[in-house]
Write a structure and sequence with these properties.
CATH architecture of one domain: Alpha Horseshoe
Strand content: under 5%
Largest sheet: none
CATH superfamily of one domain: Tetratricopeptide repeat domain
Structural class: mainly alpha
Helix content: over 70%
Order of helices and strands: HHHHHHHHHHHHHHHHHHHHH
Oligomer: single chain
């Protein structure tokens, strides 16, 4: 009898322990589930805050990377798609902006925000004047987009070569946002355009001081220092820019600085490294070809210049250098064809220069400006071509061929 009672008590005790363990497990699971559901919104907000931080720092590559990670974890939202469109616009990926805006609009993004973003895009593409009524109304009441409006106006006036008005907007931008580095960057760009390189350096230094980890600001300062032949200073800034982000423009610039300081092997390494980033980059290909010519090594020069000439058959310097390399390597017959091509390109460039002189005495001739822009796009500097095409549209906003050529040119620059 006594043993039976003892077994009963032991059984009850075991049952109690199992109940306690079960309750403990249920409690722990409940806490974990509650923690997961409670912290998920916090983690989501944290990840989105990193996107906003990158956008505020104007680090568009970082912003796009953070947005990709956010979308992978939580799926695209109207806000993430809208911010993607803005980051794409600022990074120059114009052909992808409208796709992101359409998706954001489909998910219910505010129509006014979408309309504003499309307007900013049109101004940057030169398709809409900075004097557009809606943009001017936004300037009076920008809401949370004051800096975007300032930037659109500055870019628009700069594209239209209205530098005085661009500078007036920059002054207002400085006063409203004294710690924003972007107006200093544009101030440097305008000063460089005006051949005021020392002033440009001062502007860009202020931008770098406010945003020392922005690779674009660093590279631009380095490029102006390179133009001033301050090679040691330029090298330092190119190296910092490359430590923040490896890009072919900085590698090419660093290579030039090293070359002009007589550090030829290091220069060569920088150009070759640039080609690993962008295999068809003509700047690095031509730089390596010219180094081969200067060293009297025609075969080495030809290896690089032939690759460059396949990328762009209409570059005079490239065709001329290729002809020289062929002569150095003993291939005179082949050199002759490239010399002839270079001569034909020189004649076309001379014709363009003559048209540009005519344009000075015909300030309202939209067709002449269109023809110049179209020719320059084919044989010369595409940024210069865009300037002439925008001039045609300023004379005649309904010049459809100029508008189509400008849009095509801008998209091609983006893809390259």
């Amino acid at each position: 009898m006594t043993m039976g009672n003892g077994e009963t008590r032991r059984g009850q005790a075991g049952l109690s322990k199992r109940r306690v363990r079960c309750m403990l497990v249920i409690t722990i699971v409940g806490i974990v589930v509650a923690w997961a559901f409670g912290t998920k919104p916090l983690v989501r907000r944290y990840k989105f805050s990193r996107v906003h931080r990158a956008i505020n720092d104007r680090n568009w590559d970082e912003a796009l990377g953070q947005l990709a990670a956010f979308d992978e974890s939580y799926g695209s939202t109207s806000e993430s798609l809208f911010l993607r469109a803005r980051a794409l616009r600022h990074s120059g990926a114009y052909d992808q902006v409208d796709v992101a805006l359409n998706k954001a609009e489909h998910l219910g993004c505010d129509e006014n925000r979408i309309e504003r973003e499309r307007l900013f895009l049109q101004v940057e593409l030169g398709q809409t004047s900075p004097d557009d009524r809606m943009l001017q109304r936004l300037a009076m009441d920008p809401g949370g987009d004051a800096q975007e409006v300032f930037e659109a106006l500055v870019k628009g006036y700069f594209l239209n070569d209205e530098l005085g008005r661009a500078t007036m907007v920059l002054d207002a931008w400085h006063k409203s946002f004294p710690n924003d580095p972007q107006p200093f960057f544009y101030g440097g760009t305008i000063a460089e355009h005006n051949k005021q390189l020392e002033d440009s350096v001062r502007w860009h230094r202020q931008a770098v001081a406010l945003a020392p980890k922005n690779p674009d600001f660093r590279r631009r300062l380095a490029e102006v220092q390179l133009s001033l032949r301050n090679y040691r200073q330029a090298c330092l800034h190119f190296e910092v820019a490359l430590s923040l982000r490896e890009d072919v423009e900085s590698l090419w610039g660093l290579g030039l600085c090293l070359k002009y300081q007589g550090k030829l092997e290091l220069a060569r390494e920088s150009f070759v490294r640039g080609l690993k980033v962008a295999p068809n980059n003509t700047l690095c290909l031509v730089a390596l070809g010219e180094m081969g010519i200067e060293a009297g090594n025609g075969e080495e020069a030809l290896r690089w210049l032939e690759s460059a000439s396949k990328v762009n058959l209409n570059d005079y310097d490239m065709q001329y250098d290729t002809a020289r390399a062929l002569l150095f390597s003993g291939q005179g017959d082949l050199a002759k064809a490239h010399f002839q091509r270079a001569a034909a390109l020189r004649r076309e460039l001379t014709r363009i220069e003559q048209l540009q002189e005519m344009a000075k005495s015909s300030p309202d001739d939209a067709e002449l400006r269109y023809q110049i822009g179209k020719s320059v796009a084919q044989y010369g500097d595409r940024e210069e071509a865009a300037k002439w095409l925008r001039g045609a549209l300023k004379c005649d906003p309904n010049h459809q061929l100029a508008r189509e050529t400008l849009t095509s040119l801008t998209m091609t620059q983006t893809q390259n």
